[in-house]
Amino acid sequence: MKNLEILLNYIKKDKTGIFAILIIVIIILYGILGSIFIMNLNTADSVYYTIITIATVGYGDIIPITPLQKIFSVTLALSGVGLLAYIVTFIISSVTQNLHDIRSGRIMERKLAEMENHYILCGFGRVGAAAYEELMKRQQKVIIIEKNEEKLDDIEKNDNVIALHANATEDKTLKKLNIDKSLGVIVTTGSDVDNLFIVLTTRELYKDAWIVSRASKKENIKRLKHAGANKVISPEASGGTDIYFAAVQPNLVHITERHGINFIGKELEILRKYNCHLENIEYHFHGIRTPVSRTIGVLDESAEDNFVEKINTDKNVRESLETIYETVNEVHSHWVSGPDKFFLNMAIEELKNEGIVLGVNLSFDEINEFTKQFKK
Hints:
The chain is an alpha/beta fold. It has helices at 2-13, 16-37, 43-54, 67-114, 126-137, 171-174, 192-205, 221-227, 240-247, 264-273, 301-313, 315-327, 341-353, 364-373; strands spanning 118-122, 141-146, 161-165, 184-187, 211-214, 231-233, 252-258, 277-278, 280-283, 292-295, 331-337, 357-360.
């Protein structure tokens, strides 16, 4: 019964199964019609003779006499042997594939169970792919959930990336993803209805989850927030980078510092040690609420080293930076991202030990007091 079920499932997926059934039917018809017209048997005996010959049982109660009858019996028997060999091979192959699928499923379940300090990305369309790219730049661990299996083909799977072909709107899928041990859930399917359902279900299952959702239409932003999303981003005005920053917000800190350009290399070295990144730099002017900001993004090690070398060797670059730093009395801030809170705190603690940190997540008034204090 189990083998028949495997056979039927295979036939549904593969057209070769239909051709196999057709071949079996043709061989049986060949045997019955040949038995009637060549062996001169009645219908019941024709069915009987066909089955025992195909099955290579051959009781010997019906014996071919003429050369034509013998040729017919031989061809029918050979067809039967080939058919039996095919069926046995087919069943073994199907059972083996079934066992492989079960084993692969168990391996996937084990990988999912071992994931922690990761992001969960629901939907891998244009916006989801952009958010994924930002996560990869920062070497974050990610579980990707996508209904369209073809979209997952080009993703490089490794210990930090799991691509799961599944429907994120289903409770059973969400329960597999270790959401309680994740850093955040990013919902970026192309359907606001699906996004709403995923956010609502995730919030019901995991009250403390950090959830960031895409809203294809601006009028759905409020609905998604009411459903439980901490942040809602509309790609009409934003892209994958904004979704990433919304998702990483719990692991993003605003550090206000005071140091000269000679410390830039040391600062980058400390942050690199903990896999943290300077996302931007903000230059603060006394009494001005909005700082002058410049995006830095993710720089690889060689790009950071080249930048530091340019400061040390290029007179024009050095003088330009010194002018900016002197103008703001060396008071500036950074948004710093990290793999998780532990490593962020380690990096901040080391920067504090260097004596350059004025404060973390300071308000405008607090920063303004420092700009006043150090104003020349």
